[in-house]
Amino acid sequence: MRTAIIIALGLLTASLLLRLAPAGQRTLAAGAFTLVWLGVSAWNLRTGMSHGYTFAQELPIHLALFGIPVALAWVLWWRSSH
Prior knowledge:
This is Membrane protein YwaF. By secondary structure, the protein is mainly alpha-helical. The protein has three helices and no strands.
C-alpha cells in the first residue's frame, strides 16, 4: 500500500508541476522533478533497507517508485512541447 501511495503522490506532483509551469520552463520543471524524485526514491530505498530488506529486494520497488512518475513527467513535457 505504501508503494502505491508514493507512486500516486509522484504522479500527482509531476502532473501539477508540469501543468503549472510556464511553457518556457517545463524542461527545467521536468528535470528538477526528476532530481528531486530521485532523492525521494533514494530515501525510500534507504528506509526499506534499514528495516531489514536487501538491496536486491528493494531495487524493483525503487525502480517503479522512481520510473513511473518520472516517465509521466517526461511524457507530459514531450506532449506539451509538440
